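INPUT
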Amino acid sequence: MEMGLRLWEMADRSVLAITGTSYTRQATRMKHAVAAAVNAAKAALDEGSLATAVAEIELRYRLDAGTPGGLVEQVGRALDATDSVLGAVDYLTALRAITVSSMTAYFERLTGPLVVEFAP
Amino acid sequence: MTGLPWPNLGWSAALIVTLLWIHPLSAQEGVFAASATVERDLATTDAAAILLPVGSQDDGAGYGSTAWLLGHTLAAQANTVLGGLGAEVTVSVERSTTRFTLTALPHVWPEAWTSLNATVFTDPIDLETFRRVLETLSGQMAFREGSPAFDFERESASMLAPPSHEWARNPFGTSESRAVISVQHADLLRADLYHPAAATVGFVGANRGSFPLDTLRPATAAVPAAGLAWLGGDRIALTQEVTSAWISVAYPAPQSTSRTSLEFVAHRIRAALDPHPPDPERYSVDVRIVDAPGGRDRVGGSHLSGGRRPLETGDRRHRGRHGDQPAHGRLFPVGTPSLQVSETPRGRDARVGRSKDRGGPAARRRSPEPIPRYLGARRRDARRGVEQPW
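OUTPUT
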């Protein structure tokens, strides 16, 4: 059984896509895990786990920007998304400003889910 | 060049030296054998490496993998402490060195560095972490031991040191050694050899003035020389019933050869040997620099001395379904100019080509004699050299 998570950014909205793959024998278990993923993440929110996640994301972001090519990609991607040359810096600032309440509010704004299933 | 008393400790040490050539550094008295800081105001993260002259060659007889387990246990402990802080530790345990690398967000650097130092040098080894690391290693080795690739690694190491030499010892031990190793063995090894005064430290980052260990004390530890390294090795072709064939060729390089030159040559050889476009189904190539025990110079010129850094060329060739033969005679001429970068009087760049004559007879005479190892379905006389078709 394999699980995956992706963020698709489109012009008018973003999509949080949770995917699961398994053999038929484990299909039911996999589908339950996929369906429960968002609520499980929401229930597990606390200051500690949030601080850990923020630190890990910032470290990855900075490591990716540690080479000239990586820096160009990070700054360029942020510039493309925000039309601001400070987009990458603003991203890190916003990242550090995340709180449990802001994350809870984010979860509350999620709509859906839309479910697509491929089965043999 | 900075003139640092830099011990010949391996890749990471050389990597740091390379950085020192590029950036200004500051150094003061401190507790480490040698250390240097490279300050980069625009660095996105801070990083430091602690390089210890401890490796599998220091495992006691019958206790193979002790150094590996010790290094990885301490790294796991450090990551447990640093988890969520925005810092991480990786470790690499080789035959003669152990390197801890800390990468951290700038604002947590002091805390992360202090924590790593305590974990590596003073904190008790956590028994549960040790057991978990040992269990993981044993699980991994259950699949690796007995494999042709694993056997070939062992044979490749025996090119550079006699099989009986401590350096040639398998870093991962054996199932027998792992069955008897306990956390006490790791603790003893650390007590004996994990000393800040024996460590070399390098730092790259933006924490100007906050790096607490700036030393230029003369190095007190280095990779111990071990006599007639590659000269004493037997040349044995390892024959197994396998569908792939491996060949490894080592080019001993004099200790005086600069690491940068070796890196450059390794890059050129890799570029010359790698199929383009990549063709992993046919063969793959790996070129790396190995810090082997000291040995007698095998290079013709009397101006060269020592031989601590063989340039090893590993070429794994897959025989295709139709019995494709590898291109004969490619490894030797391509590797031949390995010393031209540093030894050519006119200072000309190395010319790495596929033609046997590209380097010229004089260049070939100056170059070290390659030491081949071959693993394949048919026995070959490796002593005849890789120039011979196999």
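end of record. Residues 46-120 of chain A form one domain.
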